[in-house]
C-alpha cells in the first residue's frame, strides 16, 4: 500500500521535499534564528498548490512541468539569498525588474555568492544529467502518466490554500518586511507583495497641502530670522565630491600603525566635519545618492529614483536653483551615462552638461571605468576652464574605484595589509579606500595648484554603505569590532562622512548635529547666500539647526528613521521596534517617539506625492 502510494504520488512528494531543503537554505541565511519546523506550514503549502495544478491539468510532460516549476522557485530563493546578502531586505519583483543591471556589475554580484548557495541548483543539474538517458526518460514518462486521485488533489489543494491564507492575512499589516516574510513564508510573501501593490496604493497627498511650513513642522525646524554664515561664500564656485562606498568609521582609523585615509583625515581636521551624518540612498545606491543630494527629496519606495516616473519630471533641484542664480552646472562620472539611466537623471534635475565614459575613455580601468586617478587628473583642467568664465560654476564629481567588491589591481596597492586581512571583504575594502584616498590627495593638490581651492565651496561625502553587515562572516565581524571598538551594526553601516571646505567662513571644526544627504542642498545654499524658501526641500540647514528627523528607506524595514539620539528600526509596528544608539550601536528602550514614527512616514509620502504631481517635462 505504501509503495503503491509513493509510486502514484512520487513526483509531488519528491519535488516538495527538494524545495523544502532549498527553503531551509534561504531561511538559514535571511532569518536570524534560521529554519524551524514552521517552514513546513509556511513554504510547503505553496509548493503543493503549484504541483496540484500540474497534476490536475498536465496529461503529458508532467515531469517536465515539475522541473520547470522547480527551476522557477529555485531562482526565486536564489535571488532572495543574493539580494539579502548585500541589501539586507527580501527581494521582490521590484528588484527583479532591475535584473538587467546584474550583468553590468557582474564582479560585484558574483562576489556575493557563497558556495553553499549553489546547493539549491544541485538537483537541477542531477535531473538534467538523467533527463537525456533513454532508460530514465521512459521511466519518467511512465511515472508522469499516473494520475493522482482527484479527491485527494481537491483536499490537499484546499488545505494548502487555507494554510497560505492563514499565513498571509494575520501578518499582512506588519511593517517589517523581514518579519512579514518569515511569518507568511518567503513565497507567500512574494505573491502577497505582487497583489498588494496592485490593490493597496499609498495615499497621494494633494500638492496644495504640501508646503515648506508643513515639512518644517514635521521635522521640528524653526527657521532663524538671521541664519548664521548666510552668504559667507556668496559668488564662489561649488564643487561636490561623492566618494564611492565611503563610510565614516574610516576617518582617523589606523591599521597596524598605518593611516588608512591620511588625506581625508587631514581634510576633516582642517575643515568643518560632520561626524553624525547618514546616507539616504535606496535601491539605486550611487545614483540614488546623486538624486537625493541634488534634489533634497527622498527616493521612491520600491525602485531606484532613476528607474521611476520621477525621471519624467522637472524636479526642483540644486542645479536648477544655482542656474537661476547665474551658475553653470556640470557633473563628472567615468561610467557610461546610460548606466542607471543617468542621462534621464541629469535631465530631470537640470544639469547643463555631463562628462562620462565617452570623455574619460577606459584607460587604467578599475571597477566600471577609468580609475580615480584618471577621473581627477582629467577633471581639474575642465573645472579650470569653467572657472575662467565670468559666471561661477557648480560641479559634481563622483569617484568610483572603491566600488564593491573592492578588488583593485596590485599595482594600485598603496598599503600593506596585515596577513589576517588578506582575502577578506574587509581587507579589500580598506585597501580600495586607501587607494581612493591616495587619488583624492592628488585631486586636492590639483585644486590648490589651479587656484580652485581658494575660490570654491567644496563638499565631500560618502554615497552609501560599503561593508554590509549581512555579508560579513564571523571572522570579519570580529576584525571590524576590533577596529571600531564596538559591535558593528546599523548605525555604523549607514554612517558616512560629510566634510565642507569653505574658503571664506570661519566654520566650527566639528559638528555633531544629526544630518543626512537630504540636508546638503539647504546647507550649501545658506553658505552661498541663495534662498531656498521658494523651492520645496525636505532637508535642513545643518549650520542653523540642532535637531533632525531623517526617514530611511529600502535598506531597513518600512517606518525606520534617525533622530538626534538613535536609529529606530521598525518591528511589526512602532511598539516592538528597536532604538540603536548613534554613539555605539547599543540597543536602548527609548530614544524615539511614536510622533516621530508617524512624522517620518508622512514626510516620505509628502515627498513622493509632490514629485508625482509635478508636470512632465516637455
TrEMBL record:
One Pfam short name: Sulfatase
Pathway: Cell wall biogenesis; lipoteichoic acid biosynthesis
Localization annotation: Cell membrane
InterPro entries linked to this entry: Alkaline_phosphatase_core_sf, LtaS-like, OpgB/LTA_synthase_biosynth, Sulfatase_N
Membrane topology: Multi-pass membrane protein
Transmembrane annotation, as ranges: 36-57, 64-84, 110-130, 151-169
Record's protein name: LTA synthase family protein
Annotated ranges, domain Sulfatase N-terminal: 236-530
Signal peptide: none
Protein family: Belongs to the LTA synthase family.
Keywords (A to Z) from UniProt: Cell membrane, Membrane, Transmembrane, Transmembrane helix
Amino acid at each position: 500500500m505504501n509503495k503503491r502510494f509513493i509510486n502514484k504520488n512520487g513526483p509531488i512528494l519528491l519535488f516538495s521535499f527538494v524545495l523544502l531543503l532549498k527553503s531551509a537554505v534561504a531561511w538559514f541565511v535571511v532569518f536570524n534564528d534560521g529554519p524551524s519546523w514552521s517552514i513546513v506550514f509556511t513554504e510547503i503549502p505553496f509548493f503543493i498548490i503549484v504541483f496540484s495544478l500540474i497534476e490536475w491539468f498536465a496529461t503529458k510532460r508532467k515531469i517536465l512541468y515539475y522541473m520547470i516549476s522547480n527551476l522557477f522557485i529555485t531562482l526565486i530563493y536564489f535571488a532572495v539569498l543574493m539580494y539579502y546578502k548585500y541589501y539586507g531586505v527580501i527581494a521582490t519583483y521590484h528588484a527583479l525588474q532591475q535584473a538587467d543591471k546584474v550583468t553590468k556589475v557582474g564582479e560585484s554580484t558574483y562576489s556575493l555568492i557563497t558556495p553553499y548557495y549553489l546547493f539549491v541548483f544541485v538537483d537541477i543539474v542531477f535531473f538534467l544529467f538523467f533527463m537525456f538517458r533513454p532508460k530514465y526518460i521512459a521511466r519518467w514518462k511512465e511515472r508522469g502518466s499516473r494520475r493522482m486521485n482527484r479527491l485527494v488533489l481537491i483536499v490537499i489543494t484546499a488545505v494548502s490554500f487555507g494554510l497560505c491564507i492563514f499565513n498571509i492575512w494575520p501578518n499582512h499589516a506588519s511593517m517589517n518586511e523581514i518579519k512579514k516574510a518569515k511569518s507568511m513564508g518567503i513565497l507567500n510573501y512574494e505573491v502577497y507583495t505582487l497583489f498588494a501593490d496592485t490593490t493597496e496604493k499609498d495615499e497621494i497627498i494633494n500638492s496644495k497641502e504640501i508646503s515648506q511650513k508643513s515639512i518644517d513642522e514635521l521635522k521640528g525646524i524653526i527657521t532663524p530670522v538671521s541664519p548664521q554664515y548666510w552668504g559667507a561664500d556668496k559668488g564662489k564656485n561649488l564643487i561636490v565630491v561623492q566618494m564611492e562606498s565611503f563610510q565614516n568609521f574610516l576617518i582617523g582609523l589606523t591599521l597596524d600603525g598605518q593611516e588608512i585615509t591620511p588625506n581625508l583625515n587631514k581634510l576633516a581636521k582642517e575643515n568643518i566635519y560632520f561626524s553624525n551624518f547618514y546616507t539616504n540612498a535606496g535601491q539605486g545606491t550611487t545614483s540614488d545618492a546623486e538624486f537625493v543630494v541634488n534634489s533634497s527629496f527622498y527616493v521612491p519606495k520600491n525602485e531606484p529614483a532613476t528607474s521611476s516616473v520621477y525621471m519624467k519630471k522637472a524636479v526642483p533641484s540644486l542645479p536648477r536653483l544655482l542656474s537661476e542664480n547665474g551658475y553653470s552646472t556640470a557633473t563628472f562620472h567615468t561610467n557610461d551615462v546610460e548606466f542607471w539611466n543617468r542621462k534621464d537623471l541629469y535631465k530631470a534635475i537640470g544639469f547643463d552638461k555631463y562628462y562620462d565614459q565617452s570623455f574619460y575613455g577606459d584607460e587604467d580601468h578599475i571597477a566600471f571605468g577609468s580609475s580615480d586617478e584618471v577621473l581627477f587628473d582629467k577633471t581639474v583642467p575642465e573645472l579650470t576652464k569653467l572657472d575662467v568664465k565670468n559666471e561661477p560654476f557648480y560641479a559634481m564629481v563622483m569617484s568610483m574605484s572603491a566600488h564593491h567588491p573592492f578588488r583593485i589591481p596590485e599595482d594600485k596597492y598603496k598599503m600593506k595589509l596585515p596577513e589576517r586581512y588578506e582575502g577578506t571583504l574587509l581587507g579589500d575594502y580598506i585597501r580600495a579606500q586607501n587607494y581612493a584616498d591616495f587619488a583624492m590627495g592628488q585631486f586636492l593638490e590639483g585644486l590648490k595648484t589651479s587656484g580652485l581651492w581658494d575660490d570654491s565651496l567644496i563638499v565631500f561625502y560618502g554615497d552609501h554603505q560599503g561593508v554590509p553587515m549581512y555579508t560579513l562572516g564571523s571572522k570579519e565581524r570580529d576584525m571590524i569590532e576590533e577596529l571600531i571598538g564596538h559591535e558593528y551594526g546599523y548605525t555604523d553601516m549607514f554612517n558616512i562622512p560629510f566634510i565642507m571646505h569653505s574658503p571664506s567662513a570661519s566654520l566650527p571644526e566639528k559638528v555633531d548635529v544629526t544630518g543626512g544627504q537630504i540636508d546638503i542642498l539647504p546647507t550649501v545654499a545658506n553658505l552661498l547666500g541663495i534662498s531656498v524658501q521658494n523651492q520645496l526641500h525636505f532637508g535642513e540647514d545643518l549650520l542653523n539647526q540642532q535637531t533632525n528627523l531623517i526617514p530611511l528607506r529600502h535598506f531597513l524595514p518600512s517606518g525606520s528613521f534617525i533622530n538626534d539620539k538613535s536609529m529606530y528600526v521598525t518591528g511589526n509596528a512602532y511598539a516592538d521596534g528597536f532604538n540603536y544608539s548613534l554613539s555605539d550601536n547599543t540597543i536602548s528602550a527609548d530614544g524615539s517617539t511614536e510622533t516621530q514614527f508617524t512624522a517620518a512616514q508622512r514626510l516620505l509620502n509628502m515627498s513622493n506625492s509632490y514629485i508625482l504631481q509635478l508636470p512632465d517635462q516637455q
